Amino acid sequence: MTSDKHTKAPRKTVGGEPAHPGAADKSQDPDWANGLRRLYDSVVEEPLPDSFQDLLDQLDSKA
Amino acid sequence: MATEKRTASEKADFKRELTDVVPHLRAFARGLCGRADMADDLVQETLLKAWAAQERFQPGTSMRAWTFVILRNAYLTDMRRNRFRGEYDETVAERVLTAPAGQEEPIHLSDMHRALLTLPPERREALLLVGAGGFSYEEAATICDCAVGTIKSRVGRARAALNTMLADGSIPKRSIGDDAAHRAILEELDDVASGQGARRN
């Protein structure tokens, strides 16, 4: 259904292999797809400011 | 049954699960609104709302999916109130700009993030959920309260747009900083928000 969208941009990706038309499944993800996950994971792995735990403890003590 | 009073151990479970999901909420929020400080405000707001609504959480279901719905709705509401100007946070992007080993021409995460922020919010969130958060199309559709086909289409369009931008290097300098782009995004948001309501039930 959406496959026609992909055929419009069969350009090279930044880092290497050409993006495949119809690249909808994981095995054909362009290179930047990995970057998207790293962007997300880099935030997940950041040390957590205390403010979040403090807020939850505060809410918990009120209950 | 969802409104029954929770036992102490259920409450403790809820708090633990909510605590565990905070890093994911931060990552999703950062992707959505682009600025670390605003993203964290959004996460705080989400935690408050989740806490207040905890008796509606069904134990055993995905806390991440449940809280993402809350965060998403809070974001849409705040966006429409014009709280997020979508300023791109350059310093954060520089900090996360790390080249993977063995890759000759790494994609700069700052480019990646900037390109992501140029997408209309509904496509951005779809791509974040599926491409970054690892949700299935079905789960993402539940979170966004829309059809699976709609999510697939949004992800497809988002991918096509990023392909073009990252291949050309044609990423706008300031994503939604200029008025025309910002207006267009707000108009799309109106459609999103009016079409599916701000609440889950």
- The CA-CA distance between the termini of chain B, in Å, is 15 Å
**Main sheet attributes: strand count, strand direction, barrel closure of chain B:** none
Low-confidence stretches of chain A: 1-27
Instruction: Round the mean pLDDT of chain B to the nearest integer and report it.
Output: 78
Radius of gyration of chain B: 17 Å
Class of secondary structure makeup of chain B: mainly alpha
**How many β-strand runs of chain B?**
0
Strand/helix succession of chain B:
HHHHHHHHH
CATH architecture of the largest domain in chain B: Orthogonal Bundle
CATH uppermost class of the largest domain in chain B: Mainly Alpha
What's the topology here?
The complex is a heterodimer of chains A (63) and B (201).
Chain A: H1 3-6, H2 31-44, H3 50-62
Chain B: H1 8-33, H2 36-52, H3 63-80, H4 90-96, H5 109-118, H6 121-132, H7 137-144, H8 148-168, H9 179-196
Index terms:
heterodimer; A: about 60 residues; mainly alpha; 3 helices; rod-shaped; B: about 200 residues; Rna Polymerase Sigma Factor, Chain: A; Arc Repressor Mutant, subunit A; 9 helices; elongated
Summarize the structure.
Chain A contains 3 helices and no strands. Chain A is mostly helical and 63 residues long. At the A-B interface, helix 1, helix 2 and helix 3 of A face helix 1, helix 2, helix 5, helix 6 and helix 8 of B.
